[in-house]
Specification:
The protein is mainly alpha-helical. The chain has a domain at about 5-45: Histone, subunit A (Orthogonal Bundle). The protein contains three helices and two strands. Helix 1 (about 5-15) crosses helix 2. It starts with 5 loop residues before the first helix and ends in a 10-residue tail after the last strand. It is an enzyme of class 6 (ligase). This is Aspartyl/glutamyl-tRNA(Asn/Gln) amidotransferase subunit C.
């Protein structure tokens, strides 16, 4: 016998805006009961002396430190551009706005 009643499943289905057939209500009542049982087992295992975690294994930041390095000058970057204007790449207008 499940601890979730058929009426409770029907109520949850209405809240979720799901249309369920009568046999689906019975089937889902059993499934929801199993889910609640599994959550209950996890609650029993969880202990106060174990800190909550977001990952099963400890993770560390693997990114490198930001270090300034030489880069292209504006002139060098624009040297291969088909068109440039005022020190920037010139591209075709796409939004149809007037300049």
């Amino acid at each position: 016998m499940s601890s979730i009643s058929r009426d409770e499943v029907a109520h949850l289905a209405r809240l979720a805006r799901l249309e369920l057939e009568p046999d689906e209500l019975d089937h889902l009542a059993g499934q929801l009961d199993q889910i609640i049982g599994a959550v209950g087992q996890v609650s029993q295992v969880a202990a106060d002396d174990i800190p909550p975690t977001s990952h099963a294994l400890p993770i560390t930041n693997v990114f490198r430190d930001d270090v300034r390095r030489p880069c292209l000058s504006s002139e060098a970057a624009l040297s291969g551009a088909p068109e440039a204007e005022e020190g920037r790449f010139r591209v075709p207008q796409i939004l149809g706005e007037e300049q």
